């Protein structure tokens, strides 16, 4: 099995690892910082290098890292230098953390739960079970979100058992049915004093690192649901 380095240190962008399996469909390393995707955050991309040879990694599947078609494959037992597309990863980290700040503000001010989310670098959306919004909601939300960002709140990660997570109402900001039943350990992302919820993705270390967040659009998705779209400057 591959040890997920991003659980221990989300800032790791390059590292050395040993190849455990190697095939055109997937490469498996003993340790990997490639986020496999999930919770609306896409998988990382990057490359592997050994002895002057490079293989592009175009994503992550259930089987392992997905090499670019036609690129050379490292042999089992090879020690490789792995590297993420660090610009893309940092943009995703900022975006994901920005969505958590939005979530924290909406939960604090309206008591609404998250029903879904998705993101690309510097663009994201979050869905809420929010029936009514007051006049000026979009502008007021943007102002409140950016006020929280400037507070430079720490963003911390920890892992708890599923049992402990399910009995903590502050953790379950995301509808519980979105967490697969086979998941026994749940990683918690805590935006200190604002938002705490189950999340397996990658994040910056503090809200100030997110930068300014724009509320690009608020959409009525019908039957008491609202979709909030955000954008971040490069």
Structure description:
The protein folds into two domains: 3-84, Elongation Factor Tu (Ef-tu), domain 3 (Beta Barrel); 89-231, Threonyl-trna Synthetase, Chain A, domain 2 (Threonyl-tRNA Synthetase, Chain A, domain 2), CATH 3.30.980. 21% of the residues lie in helices and 37% in strands. The chain is built from four helices and 15 strands. It has helices spanning 5-8, 86-110, 137-150, 162-166; strands at 3-4, 14-22, 27-29, 31-32, 46-50, 53-61, 64-67, 79-84, 114-120, 123-128, 155-161, 185-191, 195-198, 214-222, 225-231. The strands form four sheets. It has a six-stranded antiparallel β-sheet. β9 (114-120) and β10 form a beta hairpin. α2 (86-110) packs across α3 (137-150). The longest helix has 25 residues, at 86-110. The mean pLDDT is 92.
How do the helices and strands follow one another from N- to C-terminus? EHEEEEEEEHEEHEHEEEE
Percent range for β-strand residues: 35-45%
What is the CATH top level name of the largest domain?
Alpha Beta
Instruction: Give me the secondary-structure category.
Output: alpha+beta
Number of domains: 2
Write down the Rg: 19 Å
Largest sheet features: 6 strands, antiparallel
* Count of DSSP H/I helices: 4
**Molecular shape:** elongated
Name of the CATH homologous superfamily of the largest domain = Threonyl-trna Synthetase, Chain A, domain 2
User: Would you count the extended β strands for me?
Assistant: 15
* Second rung of CATH, namely the architecture of the largest domain: 2-Layer Sandwich
> Terminal Cα separation, in Å?
36 Å
**pLDDT averaged over residues:** 92
Order of strands, main sheet, comes to 3-2-8-5-6-7
CATH T-level fold name of the largest domain: Threonyl-tRNA Synthetase, Chain A, domain 2
Uncertain spans: none
Helix content: 10-25%
